[in-house]
Amino acid sequence: xxxxxxxxxxxxxLTRILISGYSIDWTQTSLFYCKFRTYSxxxxxxxxxxxxxxxxxxxxxxxxxxxxxQQWSNIRVAHRLAILVVLLGLICNIPYAIYYVHNQSPTTGxxxxxxxxxxxxxxxxxxxxITLTRILPIGLIILFGILSYRNxxxxxxxxxxxxxxxxxxxxxxxxxxLVFNANDHxxxxxxxQATNSIALSVYYLYFASPFxxxxxASARFRxxxxxxLFDVHFNQCCRRITPVN
Length: 245
Hints:
By secondary structure, this protein is mainly alpha-helical. About 80% of the residues lie in helices and about 5% in strands.
């Protein structure tokens, strides 16, 4: 999940900073990057949310009182599901790499990276955009987070709360943008676009937050972090720079 979150921050947030802050949009100059960014961003997002959902379900299964459910919480099942999630993410998001193209505006002449296929656009808006990457994972995370909260540490509850408050605003604004289009409601659409930029920044915060959640809530994680940073890497650096007499 950490690799997926890092991939989202690099392909999504970094590009957003370059576009908004420095007016550098590689998706307009390179068709390959237009397709690659959309495909990788969608794949990393699906994989990350799927892993978090599976981790929450695993927490519930491992603390469940029924032995027949506890047996599903094992490393073999986890490895198989992890590989399956990656394969499904890579395969199911191939249409993003196919249908995203450069589209030139007839009025301004500007080039945008977007999809011009109506069927895929509806799939992207209502199936992939709302259900698969937003409502479904949030529902699973909150549901199994609440169910397992009584048996495990407070971390499950904190993860569910962080997920809800970072992703939900983006879902609401995203749905409103589907209702109000630019032609019929230009003023509302422009305001929603500005709100969407803020909500999108909060949405990216979710993918950067797990480290801080675990650091604040888990003493074991802090001990492990201290061991890796100081006892392993810092001591190795000190031994390398120590002069040999």
